[in-house]
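Pasting as-is:
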Amino acid sequence: TLFFSDTFPHTSTSRVLVLQNTSSVNIKFHWTIYDIYHQNEFSIQPDENFFSIEPEDGVFAPFEEKKFVIKFTPTHSVIYEQKLDLVIENIPFPAIKQFVSSSFNIK
């Protein structure tokens, strides 16, 4: 969970997340962002993201450390919660849990 400081509507706040590929293979990835739930009167449109991440997709080289900038840009003064998933591509599903837990160091 990442928390952002109070941010005025239509302004932005950013946080940096650093991940490292500790494996010896290239790892292709992309991020998905979606709404978990919203308990206030204000309704989130399905295609409206208040969070963005850069880079949005790419490749982790073997043993590479990569910085991701997560940006929060609210449009109203309400509490926001969305989920960002790092999707590792071209890996058999049963291997994903073991691979992610052993192949990335979160700093």
